[in-house]
Amino acid sequence: MASPCELLIDSQDQKLAQHLTSFAYAECRRIEQKYSRYLGGNLIDQINKSKGQSVAIDDETYRLLEFANTCYEISEGLFDITSGVLRKIWKFDGSDNIPTKQQVKAILPKVGWPKVKYNQQNIRLPEGMELDFGGIGKEYAVDNVAKICKEQAPLTSVVVNFGGDIQVTRSRANQQAWLIGIESFKSQLKTQKVLRIYQGGLATSGDAKRYLLKDGIRYGHILNPKTGYPIEDSARSVTVATDHCIQAGLLATLALLQGPNADGFLQQQGVKHWCYR
Amino acid sequence: MQLTKSKNVTAALATATCALLGVTPTVDAQESVWEMDTALLYYGETDRVTAVEGVFAAKKDFGDEHIFSAKLVLDTLTGASATGAVPQESVQTFTRPSGNGQYQINASDTPLDDTFKDTRVQLEGQWTQPLWQDYKVSSGLHLSKEYDYLSLAVNGSLAKDFNQKNTTVSAGVSLAFDTIDPEGGRPVAFSQMVIDQGQFANEEAYRTAFGETRQSGSDDKTIVDLLFGVTQVISRKMLMQFNYGYSVSEGYHTDPFKVLSVVNEQGQTQSLLYENRPDKRARHSVYWQTKYASSLGVSDVSYRFATDDWDINSHTIDTRFRINLSNNTYIQPHFRYYQQSAADLYRPFLMEGNELPKHASADYRLGEMTAYTLGFKYGMTMASGNELAFRLEYYQQNPKNSGVTAPGILQQQNLYPSLNAIIAQVSYSF
């Protein structure tokens, strides 16, 4: 998951804690093995190297594709799991290494979710295109691990925290809140914002450290799959709290894709949110 | 590039999420709300003071640990309080502090002034927030008003965390300004109580004589408190705190309602003088506290030593042990022991014919004493998360003779009567 993953378990029972941790570890590893685009030979790798050939998929993958499809539709094309190829020309390393117009023009035909054909049995991805579940994979893992914890220990409150993407399985005994600190990017003061979470999901999108700087213009790392360029004036980081981690993660990402209108968008959604610029 | 169907986004996403995870949605995260604490306290001394106090406190975290807290305390005191005069073999007559009227004390009874009555309003506001990395600042205002007393105070403190927040070092300062304007005026130091026993030709003559024992206007007192502390996490279960405090006050320290009996060699009262205290007092204190959490509950033990330039040295040991009876109920026994030496200005009485000391007071609170409190608290957390608690305590104070030989009839009198009180409190937090 490329980030620290932890479980906070509201219990004195060491056996239960070990039990839940091993379940969580197994589930986490399973999802990573299956969907990480960094691992060769897995399902995603097979699809990405299929050269336009049909690849068989299982029910879980179909559900993820359906979810990605909904995200594409509700964002009117801004959230696109085929946009990962843009990172071949955009490397957000803090440098001034901006790709040329020709490079952008050349890669854009390889982006476009509607070009992907899939059904419950198989998927066909045009040659040169790539799928990337990076935008939802970690949150999906958090929700799945939380679901397992809830099944295994329905009366115990567990916080699943994978690098700041969080799901709380149920409220704690005595109505106590979990105090969750999130790093704020407000000025250079590294203050922590402490949230009181009783139940539900929390996710943060954005990374203040990933950008390019050229001629005084800051290019944030959120790319618009329609233009091939970074979204202008996007927030540096958005945190959203709602029922499920994956929902929160998506809303946070969609807010970043709104550019200057992130706050307005989140207000319209009626969700708790914290937006840093 | 706006989402035109924004309002549908959440709903569509929620449906997609449930389809993906195969679950139904639940409650979301919450930001903090106002936390309220209310309490009603009864304090009753046998035959003496009764106090009823209501406390209303509110606290809110406005995010990022920016915390505002406010407190309102209302209390009423009624009853009788010891004047400092010694008991006698015969009935004694005293003039009320206001100069309006008299009261009589039966033979062998400790003289108490039964006109003790007051209402106090106290208001506090405090703001605390993080500053830079690992620093925290706090500042507050305090106002307390009684019928004849006004106290205004400001405070500020700075704390810094070290060792991944395992050590906290703090420094604080508080400045208070008190004004006193007692009913009937402040007595002139060591002036003799004027008692109308028919010796005055008329009311006006009495009033003139009484007026001569009084100073006009109000007086005040300023207090500076400095506090330095270290809090250390010892282990996952243990926390320790050390504090050093220095307090210096300047101004009017005298209790305008307290007197001293001047007795002859037979122990008979010849006159009553209003007390006189120094106009400066400096106090040092050290405090140590340890909290330990075990599977049974939480124990909390503290010790305080204080010494001041009036020569009062005191030791306080306070222990509480919270025992969890179930997931949502607990009982907490409490024991406190207190001991102090007498102030150098403490005199249970003055001898006739002796030179007057520079300062003197017969206030039992400045004499040698031991005191203890024994009680318990029972608390329960309700399904709503609100907490209801009851506290019942017994307090006993035993003043002691610090080596004064009582003359004549005073040997048969109880010059150091014990005082006991019951404390009952109900508190509710929501």
TrEMBL record, chain A:
Its EC number is 2.7.1.180. Its cofactor is Mg(2+). It is an enzyme of class 2 (transferase). The keyword Hydrolase does not apply. InterPro entries: ApbE, ApbE-like_sf. GO terms for molecular function: transferase activity. The keyword Magnesium applies. It comes from the Bacteria. It holds the Pfam family ApbE. It catalyses: L-threonyl-[protein] + FAD = FMN-L-threonyl-[protein] + AMP + H(+). Keywords: FAD, Flavoprotein, Magnesium, Metal-binding, Transferase. Belongs to the ApbE family. This is FAD:protein FMN transferase. It comes from Paraglaciecola algarum.
UniProtKB/TrEMBL annotation, chain B:
Pfam families: DUF3570. Keywords: Signal. It comes from the Bacteria. Residues 1-29 form the signal peptide. This is DUF3570 domain-containing protein. It comes from Paraglaciecola algarum.
